[in-house]
Amino acid sequence: MQKPARGRILEAAHELMLTIGLARATTKEIAKAAGCSEAALYKHFASKEELFVSVLKERLPQLNPLLEELVARPGSRSVEENLVEIARGAARFYEQSFPIAASLYAETQLRNRHEAAMREMGTGPHMPILGLERYLHAEQKAGRIAADADTFAAASLLLGACAQRSFAYDADGSHPPPPVDEFATALVRTLLKGIS
Predict the structure, then answer these.
(1) Are 101 and 21 in a shared domain?
(2) 67 with 25, same domain?
(3) Do 45 and 5 fall into the same domain?
(4) What pLDDT digit, counting tens, does each position of 34-66 carry?
(5) Which domain holds residue 1?
(6) What's the domain count of the chain?
(7) Which of 99, 130, 157, 191 has the greatest number of CB atoms lying within 10 Å of its CB?
């Protein structure tokens, strides 16, 4: 039994965005790889940007649902356990999303069009930072993080480090990034020394 067209389009878009980059993955090529017409693609997605956001939301490890869950229940588990889980998910997300999005930054027009579409859809790369800040603020109100800690800076540092890990390799392979679990634990313990 064949998958519904929307699922095939998402799979094809994900594969092409990973292999040839977002800039070169045209809707025509995505539709062809999905075995449908370009008109069928546009029945499910209003634009290439909407398709890109759908790939990020539906095909890559998710951060926002975890952050929303943690904001709703601050005080559950330790702050360290929660942040390590967030750091693991973020590191995996950025590891998979950067190869897709990297081509955006090579073309100014494409980047500007993409950023305008993200604003219109109410999304963008700042959303996980804001979600993590909300979680940290909830923990701060619960007294588990220092009252004077800058929760926005802490969220930016944690997620920025997770994003940077995607590029943290040596060309000769002598300094690959540490395994995700090791990286997440060390990062969070270091961050908590500053905000606990």
Answers:
(1) no
(2) no
(3) yes
(4) 999 999 999 999 888 788 878 877 776 677 787
(5) 1-59
(6) 2
(7) 191
Neighbouring C-beta atoms of residue 46, cutoff 10 Å: 11
State the greatest distance between any 2 C-alpha atoms of the chain, in Å, as a whole number: 57
Contacts of 48-52 with CB under 8 Å at 24 or more apart are 49/113, 49/114, 49/117, 49/118, 49/121, 50/117, 50/121, 51/9, 51/10, 51/13, 51/27, 52/13, 52/17, 52/22, 52/100, 52/101, 52/114
Residue 143 CB partners (closer than 8 Å, separation 6+): none
Same domain, 65 and 123: yes
Write phi, then psi, for 6 (nearest 5 degrees).
Answer: -60, -45
Same domain, 43 and 127: no
Main-chain dihedrals φ then ψ at residue 25, nearest 5 degrees: -85, 90
The last residue of a domain, from among 13, 36, 59? 59
Contact (Cβ atoms closer than 8 angstroms) between residue 61 and residue 143 = no
Give the CATH number for residue 52.
Answer: 1.10.10.60
Which residues lie closer than 8 Å to 37 by C-beta, 6 or more apart? 31
Q: Taking each helix axis from N to C terminus, what angle separates 48-59 and 108-121, rounded to the nearest 10 degrees?
A: 70
Structure tokens at 69: 């869950």
Query: Is the pTM here over 0.70, yes or no?
Result: yes
